[in-house]
Design goal:
By secondary structure, the protein is of the alpha/beta class. It has helices at residues 12-20, 52-59, 77-98, 132-151, 172-175, 179-191, 214-217, 246-249, and strands at 3-7, 27-32, 42-46, 64-67, 102-108, 154-160, 162-163, 176-177, 197-202. Helix 1 (12-20) crosses helix 6 (179-191) and helix 3 runs parallel beside helix 4 (132-151).
């Protein structure tokens, strides 16, 4: 691969993937609103991908894109609408127009956050978003499906769990994805010969995991880490009734 674009490269997940994806392309094009110092084999474009003109410049000459940009937490709906839904449309449209044929979209486990905690589900489970944020990721998946079926883009939607260096509480023992496994998952999506359109849960092979990993394994994803290795160290906070976690699904929480 000659050039890989990463939107939202200055964020937490972007930082993880910069390390993990080094060498997957001859050049990484890092894109963000915030300033970023590129390293060897990297270039940086500063701008807002919700602007289609800028998004086209960002996608120009790229073989693939990992789309991470957007608001990563709950926020007022007008903000989510612009940053997450309009932004994802702009990236997909720019990719289509500029001949960037593969997009890996950072979706979220909050697409199905109102499924009961402990229930084993896979990508075929009905969406039950727990927030406006979760709704925006469900909309992004729908846009990815449209751009695959109508325009032929290859699109992978990763319902990322808890992407941290290590799990911190009991819920994370089910939802954690290690930096190493995150890199392995994205690499698999970038290299799978017949990607088409795929929805994959982004999670490590956790003993207490809730999500079916078969769709990722079909693309070549082989997770190596298990949150159970940290079980004795995590904070013993309640998991809550729903998969999205208490802070997202508590009915007393105001968006």
């Amino acid at each position: 691969m000659q050039r890989l674009a990463i939107t939202g490269a200055a964020g937490t997940v972007g930082g993880m993937l910069r390390r993990s994806l080094a060498g997957v392309a001859k050049e990484l094009r890092l894109i963000d609103l915030r300033p970023l110092e590129p390293g060897t084999g990297e270039e940086f474009l500063r701008g807002d991908v919700t602007d289609l003109g800028f998004a086209r410049r960002a996608m120009a000459g790229c073989d693939a894109c990992v789309h991470l940009a957007g608001i990563p937490v709950e926020a007022p709906f007008p903000d989510i609408l612009q940053a997450n839904i309009a932004g994802t449309w702009a990236v997909l449209e720019a990719a289509r127009r500029e001949g960037c044929h593969r997009v890996v979209f950072a979706s979220s486990n909050h697409v199905t956050g109102f499924h009961p905690a402990g229930e084993r589900i896979g990508p075929g489970a009905p969406p039950r978003p727990d927030t406006f944020y979760g709704v925006s990721k469900a909309a992004g998946e729908a846009l990815g499906s449209l751009y695959h079926d109508k325009f032929g883009l290859s699109v992978a939607c990763l319902r990322i769990g808890t992407a941290l260096e290590r799990p911190q509480n009991r819920r994370h023992l089910s939802t954690w994805i290690s930096p190493g496994d995150l890199g392995r998952l994205v690499r698999a999506c970038l290299s799978a010969p017949d990607l088409g359109f795929a929805v994959v849960y982004g999670v490590s092979r956790n003993t207490r995991g809730w999500w079916d990993l078969e769709s990722g394994r079909r693309l070549g994803y082989q997770p190596e880490d298990d949150a159970e290795a940290y079980a004795a160290e995590v904070v013993d906070l309640p998991v809550g009734d729903f998969q999205g976690g208490i802070e997202f699904t508590d009915p007393g929480t105001t968006p």
